[in-house]
Amino acid sequence: MLQRIRVFFASRNVWEVETPLLSHASGTDSQLDFFTSTYETPPNFQSLFLQTSPEFAMKRLLAAGSGSIYQICKAFRNGEAGRFHNPEFTILEWYRVGFDLVQLMNEVEALFDDLFEGKLNAPQRVSYAEIFAQFTGLNALIFSFDEYSAFATQQNLPDAITLCGQNHALWLDFLFSFCVQPHLGENGLCLVYDYPACQSALARLNVENPLVADRVEVFINGIELGNGFYELSDAAEQNRRFDAEIQLRQRENLPIAIKDERLLAALEFGLPDCSGIALGLDRFLMVLTESSAIANVLSFDIQRA
């Protein structure tokens, strides 16, 4: 699998790069927990963080003029272990300079077709709002607490009401995971695009419809395999989003996050127009080998590490 991925990108003149696993910044996403390590240079001690993805460092390379790049590396997310999760996992992340989201989706489909040797069903592309409405009857772009709560009650998901409250993004995550995702990508690739703006993360807002972000997620047999963006290049907007995520972490009493000032400096210098995506290769191998759990495709999962 790794060899064929490298051949795929070499044939497209995409450089393989390597960036540090340890970083001075933790990232601010409230849905990701990070591992902290202590760098000892007596008498000084400094906290460093194991990366949750190589994204920020790769964007610094892009701003420095690297051109299109990819990386296969380890990433780390604390508190994530189960059938589809291991706290240490392998990630493929790539960025294509000059690509919009449609061109990126074309390349994702080409990679999957190559690795599955054409054995998957024809790929499907669907907007988030369309697929969300199909399985819930709800408007994903305009939040109504009453309508969302009524649906959760009807589906015997009362925990959603207490857990999500007035947080639109949390509601979407909860309902999508339970009611939509299991139906996506039956023996084939499903690309869900145009995510609601409240889930924009590191993506640009769509210029034609500011209610959605230029973001795509990849699914096969109900398993999420990847998350991609038409990348945000506005340093001021990225800084605003970082601050909002830090405030959310404080309100929810989550560990303090360190904003990546080096990324912001790179964006200020100038990130070229590009799209990028990260794929979890352990989950990918699960699907490729028809394995039932991520532990089956790891030499040693966290229980045996």
Protein model, in words:
With 305 residues, the chain is α+β, with helices and mostly antiparallel strands. It has helices at residues 2-10, 55-63, 101-115, 128-136, 145-154, 159-164, 168-180, 235-251, 261-270, 281-289, and strands spanning 15-16, 22-23, 35-41, 44-50, 69-76, 88-97, 121-127, 188-196, 212-220, 223-230, 274-280. β9 (212-220) and β10 form a beta hairpin. α4 (128-136) crosses α7. The longest helix has 17 residues, at 235-251. The radius of gyration is 19 Å and the shape is globular. The mean pLDDT is 95.
Mean of residue pLDDT values: 95
Rounded Rg: 19 Å
CATH superfamily: Bira Bifunctional Protein, Domain 2
Main β-sheet, spatial strand arrangement: 1-5-6-11-10-9-8-7
The CATH class: Alpha Beta
Helix content: 25-40%
How much beta, percentage-wise?
Answer: 15-25%
- Label the structural class: alpha+beta
Regarding quaternary structure, what we see is single chain
What is the general shape?
Answer: globular
- Poorly predicted residue ranges: none
For the biggest sheet, the summary is: 8 strands, mixed
> What is the terminal-to-terminal distance?
23 Å
Strand and helix order: HEEEEHEEHEHHHHEEEHHEH
CATH architecture: 2-Layer Sandwich
Whole-number total of structural domains? 1
Number of strands: 11
Our count of helices gives: 10
CATH fold category name: BirA Bifunctional Protein, domain 2
Briefly characterize the structure.
With 305 residues, the protein is α+β, with helices and mostly antiparallel strands. It has helices spanning 2-10, 55-63, 101-115, 128-136, 145-154, 159-164, 168-180, 235-251, 261-270, 281-289, and strands at 15-16, 22-23, 35-41, 44-50, 69-76, 88-97, 121-127, 188-196, 212-220, 223-230, 274-280.
